[in-house]
Every structure is written in structure tokens, then in C-alpha cells.
Amino acid sequence: MSNTPNIFDYRKYWAECLLPAPELPMSREEMDSLGWDSCDIIIVCGDAYVDHPSFGMAVIGRALEAQGFRVGIIAQPDWQSPEDFMKLGKPNLFFGVSAGNMDSMINHYTADLKLRHDDAYTPEGVAGKRPDRAVLVYSQRCREAYKDVPIIIGGIEASLRRIAHYDYWSDKVRRSAIVDAKADLLVYGNAERGIIEIAHRLSRGENAKDIQDIRGTVLVKQGLPSDWRAIDSTTLDTPKVIDPIISPYTDTSSASCDKKEEKADEPQPIKLVGIDNHNLNQKDKTYIRLPSFQQVKKDKVLYAHASRVFHLETNPGNARVLVQKQDKKEVWINPPPIPLTTEEMDWVFELPFTRLPHTSYGKVKIPAFDMIKHSVNIMRGCFGGCSFCSITEHEGRIIQNRSEESIIKEVEKIKSTSPSFTGIISDLGGPTANMWQMACKDKPTEESCRRLSCVHPNICKNLITDQKPLVNLYRKARAVEGVKKVFIASGLRYDLAVRTPEYVEELVTHHVGGYLKIAPEHTEDDPLSKMMKPGIGTYDAFKKMFEKYSKSAGKEQYLIPYFIAAHPGTSNKDMMNLALWLKRNGFRADQVQTFYPSPMANATTMYHTELNPLKKIGREKVKTARGLRQRRLHKAFLRYHDPKNWDLLRETLVDLGREDLIGNKKHHLIPFPTRKGFQKSQRKGRRFHTQHTGLPPRAHK
């Protein structure tokens, strides 16, 4: 890992003399004004172009520009024909294709599969400016526009679909995005290191199909190299199966666990070369063969097994190549990219961003930009490993930190250049608020570790959890002249926060604006274990510290907890107990989150297979809320105070034998089905995402 070249040490491409551009061009007129006859690289993206380091297309575009390449942007093109994809001309090197900062399907549909009516990444929040499965559609149009130009796909949508994956929207297993998009390469995760290497190699005349050895990339092979060792994935993690199944490593597209299924020809097994259980850690010229797409599509045990092996091979220090047969092709998944060093992170975030939407948008509002324009990203990655979250699968578990100097420099830049700055920094964070500068105490240990989380089921003894450096950073940020307030809006790991009381005191005293949102997600142990979240006792410990330091600061402040409904592993009884906890503690959830099975997450595997991939496959089945009525019921428990939910809740409480929770007294969860009871249940109060009733807990007992 130490031999990886720095991303700013490449010899610059010849067009460096024409750069940088005030903003990356979106039209031929802008290209002409810059003196460009063509673009070397064109990025096609589903978001509006905002030249800000929180937007992926801007980061990749500016990073490539800094290497000397002329980069153009085609933002939110009309995908009904290839015409819009030709407006900047033919790129000299490649098209870079991304759906944007959000997966296009999650951008379009709610967890209940209802169509959303807005899009925060589009001017004026207008919906419908990008297609479903945007990476696939954009790639097709690029190929129609210029069939001989290489296509490199990336971003969150491609990243989370780099392997055969369960697709919630079609309720089936789909192929890797690189196969369906017919792209030349897929770059996953934070892609600066990979895309810069690809650009330079293409500029030197290499064929995109021949670039096969870059970390953080996925490619398609017609055959496999004979000089590589293949490892049967079941030697790493053997799934327990109730019914006999055929070998998952046979070269067939019709195999399944169903013994009654007719088979045309007896499949011939794939020869696995040189398997030696004593040398499974040898990474050089070693790949792991996963069950094929056809097999995981038909067999949920094999799907869960493949998912588990995949997640155990995500540490860049010890991950091996994964290979999965999809139809007649072999999808070759190289190990994850080496995380950026602090020096490299500073280089990326100090590129010449305007921090504004492209001037062609005029004064039109872009909601996502308005939300983050005065925020500062201080790190990447998350070692929490929450099973429902895609951050770890995309950005990795190793925290990549910016330096204190670079962060303060960005705060000063916001103050001096933003026309709308009023002295408020809206956030100083990232995927998590308080993992900055946290790491394993021992590098060799970190590089050999295969834990899915550094903080579950307990905080690893090798993890540095001191948050005093973050306290110093907060103090320096608010000391910048012209800065009136610095808020912390990113998600907080309160189980880490309580390890450093000084951090909690600093946060509560200076960086909370009345309400602090945190996410315990549930109160019951069974769903929490499937989420890989700490027990509710940790929330109680943090709450005690929060209230103590709020009182010391003379401030009336509230914790606003967020919870998930219908997460795999959650029973009706679990949701009932959560509703009782909410009532006892004086909370009314106004907006609630229902579990959303995003591609490749461990919780999505639980949802699809009803097996637990956090353990050896077959050891534990997982209760899963499926179907509209069941998911609606779990959501109704979070909104126990809403009269629209009472009929459904009454029916369920009777089924659970808890009729004692139905009545018109304060200790009851919902009222009797009477007009009088309905009227008594109505209360007035202010509303926010999770509303505190203002009553002390004892008033609800």
C-alpha cells in the first residue's frame, strides 16, 4: 500500500497550458472562449453542475483538470436521443458517466415505491430531469453518439451495483452495472485515484479494454488468466444449506437449489487451480470465485453467501480480486482503492472550485446546493458499518482526513468569496460528524482486519477514539474572523462521543442550535443487532451528558432521535415497544424513515434472502417486514399519535394480546374507537421532524 503514487505526482498532460477554466464548460461557446477545439474528457451527470467539492462531478472534473486534461460537463441531458450527448463534440479520451450524487432510483422513488415529486439536485427542485437507472441510459446514448469512445462509469449508482445485486424496484437480482451499461470500465468508491490513472494511461495510447490492473475498478473479461490461483469462496465461508444443492462453481446458467427443476445437460465443473487452505492470504495473482449471477439470482442461500464474502473482502489492506460469471462473461472486481492521504485530501479540496452553480443557471435555486453551500467536508469514510447504510460500501471503512490547516482555509474562503455568507457555517463534518482523525492504533493490524465494523458489537480496543483534536478544530473554526456560528449537522456517533466528555461539552455548548438530531434507529436489541447499532443504553448515556452540558451552558436544548421502521429483524412487538418508548419519553415522530433496501447493503441481503449475512450463512433466519400492509404497520407504530393509524394499530395490539394499551388514559398507546376518545387524542404543538411534546416523561406514564 505504501508504494501507491500520490495523485498529484503525475506528469501533466499537454493541455495544462490552457487551464484552469473559471468553470468547466457546458457549451461549445464556452469551449471557444477558452480556446479549446475539443474536450479530452466529457463528464455526463444526472445532477445540475455545481462547482463545489460536495458534488462528485465537480471533484472528478477539477481533479482531472489539475492533471492537464480539458474537461467538459453535460449535466442532466435530454436522454431521449443522442443529440444532447454530442453538444460538446467527441471527447478525445473518454466519457465519464454518473447518475449524480444520488442513486437515480432512490432519487425517484420513496421506500413505499411512490414517485417523488421533487429533486434537490435539479434547478428549482423539478423532478423528472434524469431517467430511471441513469447510468445505463446515459451510457447507451454516449455509445450511440460516438460508438468508438471509451465509457467509464462511476458515482454512487455504479459503485453500489458493481456486483450482481438485489434490485428493490424490480424485486429481482440484476447484473453488474458494467454488464448492463456495456461500459469499458467501472470505477467505484471515491474515484480520484483510479480515474486519474485511467486518464493518463488512455492519453498514452493504451486501449481501455487492456487497463485491467487498477484498484477500485471493475471490468469484464471473456476468459480468465491461467496463471492466477482461483479460490472457491466456500473455503472462506461455507453456507449451511438445508436441502442439497449443486455446486455453486459449475459452469451453468440453469443451476439452482430446486432438485425438481429439469436440467438440460449435466454441467461441467469449473476447474479451480491450486487451492491451498494454508495460503489463502496470498493476494498476488489470487482471485475468489463467487457463485455466478444465474445462481445467486435463483438461490437465496448463494446470494447471501456471495454478499457475505463480498463484504469480507472490502479492506484495501487484504482484499483480493473477486470474480463472478454473468452470462458468458466474467466480471472482474479489483480490490478497493488505497485511501487518500491527508496531503492528497487537502489537494482535492483545495482545487479551484467556484463553490457556486454554473453561471448558466442564473439565479435559479438548486435545493441541494442551498443546503450545503456553507458546509465544510472534513473527512471521508465510515467504520460504523451500519448494515442499512451504503457509505461503507462506497467510501470504505478507513477514515480519510483533511488537515486542520486545509479545513480552516476553506472556512476562510467561504467567508471571503460567498456572496450569501452571513457568518454561519452550516456544518463541519462528513459521513459522520466525529470520526475525524480516528484510526487503528496499529497499521499492520488495520491492514489484516476483516471486521465489518470497528464499533459493533463493541468498540474495538485498537481504535483511537480521542476526539480532543476535533474540539481544537471546532475552536479554531469559530475563531475565524467573520464567523458567528459553526453548526454540526452531520450524523453523530454518540457511542464514540461519550468516550470524550470534553467533546460532548464543546458540541453542546457551542455547536447545537436548539435541537440535535441523532439516530439510535431503534430501542430493541434484535433489530439493533441486525442494524449493527449500539443498544439504547448508549443513547441514554449520551442524553444524560447532553442535558448536563446544556444546563451548564444555560441553554434549553433537545435531542431529536431518528428511528427506522420495517428494518429486517424487527417484529411487530419490537415496533410496539419502540412506540411505548416514544410515548414515555414525550416524542411524536412527524416524519419517519421506512427501511429502504439500497443495492449491496447487508440489510438488503437480509430483506431479500431472510438470512443473516453478518454470521455464517444458515445460522440465523431474519424476520422481515415485507408487503405494503406490514411495512405500513411498522411505520404506523412510529406515528402512534396519528388517528389515521389507530384502526390498524388496534387490530395489531389485539393480535399481540396487548389490549391493555388501548384506552383513553395517559398510559395508553392509542384510544378506544369512540368519537370522544378521538377528540381527546388531539393535541396542539409545534411540529418538526421528530416533535417533542414539551411534557416531562412522567406525564406520559
Note down, in words, how this protein is organized.
The protein is an alpha/beta fold. It folds into four domains: 1-215, Rossmann fold (3-Layer(aba) Sandwich); 223-327, no CATH class; 374-509, Transcription Regulator spoIIAA (2-Layer Sandwich); 512-701, 2-Layer Sandwich (Transcription Regulator spoIIAA), CATH 3.30.750. 30% of the residues lie in helices and 13% in strands. It is built from 24 helices and 25 strands. Strands 3-1-4-5-8-9-13-12-11-10 form a ten-stranded mixed beta sheet, sandwiched between helices. Strands 21-22-24 form a three-stranded parallel beta sheet. A two-stranded antiparallel sheet has the order 2-14. A hairpin with a 4-residue loop joins strand 6 and strand 7 (172-174). The longest helix is centred in the C-terminal third of the chain and has 17 residues, at 536-552. The protein starts with 27 loop residues before the first helix and ends in a 9-residue tail after the last strand.
Per-chain topology:
Blueprint (H helix, E strand, L loop, with lengths): L27 H7 L6 E5 L4 E2 L4 H10 L5 E5 L18 E5 L5 H5 L25 H12 L5 E4 H5 L5 E3 L4 E3 L2 H5 L3 E3 L4 H12 L13 E5 L7 E4 L53 E4 L3 H6 L1 H13 L8 E6 L2 E5 L8 H8 L6 E2 L9 H6 L2 E3 L1 E2 L10 H5 L4 E2 L2 H14 L6 E2 L1 E3 L13 H6 L19 H11 L6 E2 L7 H4 L3 H10 L4 E7 L3 H7 L4 H17 L5 E8 L6 H13 L2 E3 L3 E2 L7 H8 L18 H11 L7 H10 L19 H7 L8 E3 L9
Helix pairs in contact: 2-7, 9-21, 15-17, 17-19, 20-22
**Count of β-strands:** 25
CATH domain fold name of the largest domain: Rossmann fold
Percent in strands: 5-15%
Mean pLDDT: 90
Query: What's the overall geometry?
Result: globular
Helical segment tally?
24
